[in-house]
Amino acid sequence: MNAPSPSPTHPPSRETELARAESELASQEARLGEQLTRAAAEAENLSHRLLELRQQVERLTAERPGDEHVRTAGSRLESASVHTGITEESREQALASRNEALEARRRSVEDSQRTLKSLQQLNTRAQQELAEAEAGLKRSAEAEARAQREREAAARAQREREAPPMRPAARPAAKAQGNTTQLDHNPQGARSRPRMVAAIDQRSDSNFFTGFNTNISEGGIFLATVQSVPRGTTVDLDVLLPGTRSMTVTGVVHWTREVNDKTPEMMPGLGVKFSYLPPEVTSVISDFVATREPLFFPD
């Protein structure tokens, strides 16, 4: 297997290079400052020694005028010199140059501050414009959703007006913890599929379910009931949620839970998988499952 190629390296920015150069110069200036201080102190010591030796030679010459060693030492001292002002001149020049560079950097910082303020103002203005545009798009989407719900309601009302009279619904066959599930068959064959009615709240045995895909439109409803409906049967669902009107959807019996004496706490029932959910129904159900966690049933 080929070894992974190294990630491309990007050249350092000018700011990084300048910062590195400034750091190196600052270190070099500090070292030179220390060396100049030591050299100046050494020159001062040498100047004092030169003065003392000249005074000593002058005294010895008076005391021993014929001493050749004293005369030789005096000749050497006459040509000797110590320069104590050179370091001060160099230090003053260095300080002047550093002051000029400091002023230039101060002006650069002021320019950067002005640029930053201008950019922040532009960013603030752009954020306001984007927020207003997003708010407008949200209002448009909400208006379209309301219009769609109104169209769906109008179409449903029209279908109900045009539908033939229906016989009264059969008496509920099962009731579990406040949930009502009804199975309605028309014995005369007027309706081709059964109709299930389920009231779901925070404490009912009936509940919504999802699989590995948590999208509620891909899930369905578990109806707590003792009624038996074969798998694969298409049913109409009248869903009743707290604070909402009845919503009609279509589903297919996807799985069943039979009565089991070993698990009496588990209600029997049907797992009805949604065939299609209108957008307005999906929205209402999504709001509900945000307050009560749906059951999990793997696909």
Compact summary:
With 299 residues, the protein is an alpha+beta fold. It has four helices and nine strands. A nine-stranded mixed sheet has the order 1-2-3-6-7-8-5-4-9, with no helix packed on it.
Description:
- This protein has 299 residues and is α+β, with helices and mostly antiparallel strands.
- The chain is 50% helix and 17% strand.
- The chain has helices spanning 14-63, 68-79, 86-162, 279-289, and strands at 174-176, 179-184, 195-199, 207-210, 220-224, 234-240, 247-257, 269-276, 295-296.
- The chain has a nine-stranded mixed beta sheet with strand order 1-2-3-6-7-8-5-4-9, with no helix packed on it.
- β6 and β7 (247-257) form a beta hairpin.
- α1 packs antiparallel against α2 (68-79).
Tell me the strand percentage band. Answer: 15-25%
Distance between the termini: 38 Å
Q: What's the mean pLDDT score?
A: 79
Mass-distribution shape? rod-shaped
Order of helices and strands: HHHEEEEEEEEHE
What is the strand and helix layout of this fold?
Layout lengths: L13 H50 L4 H12 L6 H77 L11 E3 L2 E6 L10 E5 L7 E4 L9 E5 L9 E7 L6 E11 L11 E8 L2 H11 L5 E2 L3
Parallel strand pairs: 3-6, 4-9
Antiparallel strand pairs: 1-2, 2-3, 4-5, 5-8, 6-7, 7-8
